[in-house]
Amino acid sequence: MADEPTAATPPSNPQGERRRRQFLEIAKHLIVEEGVEAVRVPRVAEIAGCGRTLFYRYFPRREDLLMAVLTDYYELLGALSAETIDAGMRAFIDSEEIPEESRVLMALVWDGLDATGPAGLILRSTPNLNRELKDHAKTFRERYDERWHRPLRAIGMTPLEADVAVEAGLYLLNTLYARVRAGEVDRAEAIDVWLRALSTVTRGLRSGA
């Protein structure tokens, strides 16, 4: 059909983009509700109400679909400017209290997760990804994670210490976001706990320098 994309070519029309987004959203839902291993081509196609042949026109392989989930997540991070991140990170590093600049930054991150869902964050943190997916994630990390590392390096952290602090922050974000989704805590409380925990981790690593 003329309105269907071919192979790995991105859809060039609204109908094709809607179908591609449908597959992507199904994958995200499965990752969040059942785990990464639940994302299988027959399952995604069945939920979408189509055959595998149509699915493969949009995503030639399962890995291509998972890479699209990761890309969505990193595009969210890419929308945050280095200046916004730097101001928010430096504010809580340099203060005994949690300042407004840090709350603004973390609220923006949370808004992004509300818009795209936490599937990309979960996938990024999954330890048993295959080499191709790890390399895909690494490409984005090298592009975007430096924005988060820079203010930590500016206070004397080593690259390893900065990486540990960022990874701890992402783990906590994943845990707290899941609790908010489950209705166990509200967003404001979760952000407050997140920032206080990040502050504790950062100060602990900094004191060992």
Write a structural description.
It is a single chain. By secondary structure, the chain is an all-alpha fold. The chain has eleven helices and no strands. The protein starts with 13 loop residues before the first helix and ends with a helix. The model is unreliable at 1-8 (pLDDT under 50).
Considering the chains and any ligands shown, give keywords for the structure:
single chain, about 210 residues, mainly alpha, Arc Repressor Mutant, subunit A, 2 domains, 11 helices, about 0% strand, elongated, disordered N terminus
Topology:
Layout: H1 14-34, H2 41-48, H3 52-58, H4 62-78, H5 82-93, H6 100-116, H7 119-124, H8 131-144, H9 146-154, H10 159-181, H11 187-207
Helix/strand order, N-terminal first? HHHHHHHHHHH
Total strands: the figure is: 0
Counted up, domains total 2
| End-to-end C-alpha gap | 62 Å
Number of helices: 11
Quick check: average pLDDT?
85
- How is the main sheet built? none
The helical percent reads over 70%
- In terms of DSSP E residues, the strand content is under 5%
* Low-pLDDT runs: 1-8
Q: What gross morphology would you assign?
A: elongated
SS-based class: mainly alpha
Can you summarize this structure?
By secondary structure, this protein is mostly helical.
